[in-house]
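Sanity check

After download, print the first record. It should look like this:
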Amino acid sequence: MKKYQPTIGLEIHAELKTATKMFCDSPNNPDEKHPNVNVCPVCMGHPGCLPVMNKKAIESTIRVGLALGGKIAQVTKFDRKNYFYPDLPKGYQISQYDKPLVAGGELLGVRIRRVHLEEDTGTLSHDEEGKSLVDFNRAGVPLMELVTEPDIESAEQAVAFAKELQRILRYLGVSDANMEKGEMRVEVNISMNMGTKVEIKNINSFKAVEGAVAKEIERQTKLLEKGDGDKIKQETRGWDDVEKTTFSQRSKESAHEYRYFPEPDLPAFKTAGFDLLKLERELPELPEARCARFASEYGLSGAQADLLVDDEALADYYEEAASELKEKTDKPDNILLYNYLASDLAGLMKKEGLGVGEIKIPPEHLAHLVSMIVENKITSRQAKDALSEMFRGGEDAETLLKGKESIGGDALESAIAETVNENPKAVLDYKNGKTASLQFLVGQVMKKTKGAAKPDELSALLKKKLEK
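Expected structure tokens:
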């Protein structure tokens, strides 16, 4: 057993995909470039303005709770969380305190304490002169917060949890959860041997989550080993992505310092009106279950299934292609299909900066190409060349390869004979024990046949010819 055991809990915020903000009808648009245009008197906290709850945001949070196996509160309410910061226009945040929408649940063996709903703050930017500018476009955007129990024991486990939650949010369609856009932010609470808890706030990449957790464990362990455990303060720290270290920001607030009290402008409400049974029935197949099915149904490895399932559109494309492949051949090769999608086609997409939904090759065309390989109608070289042409023009493989099927028999024998006659030195070298010459001659035949020769048949016939 380790002398100092880390205890880690996560608080993960995710902006929800809704047309309008949490308590007003200002647009919820994370891509808005002009500051302070998606605002109104309600989200700016003008006196006399009353908030109205966003039903879609509440439903989205309930769906997350159901997906995680949590208990949906029968009665819930909103509260005022009072603190003063330049990006908080009202001087308080409407959040949930003692009656969250969701309690309990589990993900990857980590228990969920609660999932609640609140409104986001604005954003601050700082110029070179030291001036701070506030953009309130984000203020009031629906923000879901998930809090785990302190069940996490390593940086790697923390990252795995955050990644899986991101996948679930995307599969549910409730949040894009892009960390680089601030749509998903991770806060980490760390203590050693259940001692003083330190919080690291607003971490905006998985790499930073791993680095911050590992570095904070290292920092606290060193202090404890030196007998300086009293120097570990209950505080909020930040992550310096350049120096790769955590740094102190402020002392950590306690709940009573926020002076929570029920939001007087919003009544408590019952969740029964959301038809929880219907919402649960309509949940999609979640990533973990889909990975398991891909492994059993298509014979993919865990890593292969994970790669596809990470991108829902890519996984959908693969499933459609696999279904088409089954129709086109009696011996569908789902691993070969995966390789052409995840390697060859993905390489072309990456080069052009395109997503799977933007390419000209529909799933049935990729399936047709793979079926032609499986049926030995074309060689892998021909397939790769055809795929590049399909990517540019969108034609079907059969159209592109009409009249270019792989050659064998007399046609291949003739190409081998010509190659042997044209390369006497290589033939002599092979007969003198230089086996590398065989590959040279194979290459020459492939060149002569424009890649249409079947490699296994070619090698066997060429050896037979040379050994006469």
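If your output differs, re-run the checksum step. Summary of this record's structure: The chain has 15 helices and 17 strands.
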